[in-house]
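For practice. Any example?
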Amino acid sequence: MKAVEGWTHVAYAEAIGAEVARMAKAVRDRNPATPVRTCPAWDLRELVVHTGSIHRWATAMVRDLAPQRYERAEMDLGVPELGGNLAAWLEAGAGPLAEALRGQDPDAPMWAWGGDQRVRFWSRRQLHESVVHRVDAELAVGIAPEIDEDVAADGVTEFLDVLPYARWRPELADLNGGGDTISWQADTGPAWLITLTSEGFRYERSAAPGDVTVRAATAGDLMMLAWGRRSHQDYAVEGDVKLLQWWVDRSAI
C-alpha cells in the first residue's frame, strides 16, 4: 500500500522507533517537573506519560483489530511511579507498537478516529504523534528540534488529512470561506495551498502564492507551524496576516 509522499505502512511503522529514541534521549536524566511550554498544562513527566500511553493504547487496538475505541483510563499501561525511569519506559513501548503494526494487513478494518478506518491510519498517525511530542520534549529542555525532511513533508500533509476529523475541537466547524487561500512554502521545495470553501477547506501540493503566504526554511518548520509548535511570527509572512491568524486559532488540535 502506497501512502502520500511515497511512504508505505511498513516504512511508517519502522520510522517510529527512531523518533521515540530521540525523545527518550531528550528527557533522560531531566527534571520531570520541567514545564512543557508547547503543552502549557503539562510538565515533562506528563508529556512522556501521555506519549508512552498513546503508544501502548494504539498497540493494543492494532493487535486486536479493535472495532471500537479502547478506553485508555481502563487499561494497565505500566506507567512508572514518581521517580521511575521515564525514558526507559517510553523506549520500551516503541518496539511492540512497530511489531503490532507490521504484523497486520494495512488494509484490515479497525476503529480509528480519522477518515481511514484501517490499520494503516495508525502507522502514519503514531509516527507523527511521536515526532510532535519529541519536538515538545526537545523544546522543553532547550534543544533546537529538527525534523527529517521526508518525515516532515508527510507530517504536514497528514495534519491536513486528519484535521477535519478532530471532532473534539468545535472551532474546526468555522474553517470555511469564500475561496480565500493560505500558502505554506518551504525553501527546500515542499509547498501546500489551502483553499477555504463554503463546505470547508481543501488543500493541494502547490507552490502558488495565497492570499497569505508563509515562507519557511524547511518542511520541518512548516510541520511545527501546522501543529502549533512554532508561531507564524517566526517566519516570513506575505499578505493577509489576519487570515493566517484566523486559521491558526481555529485549526489548533
Observations:
- Strands lie at 181-186, 191-197, 200-204, 212-216, 236-239.
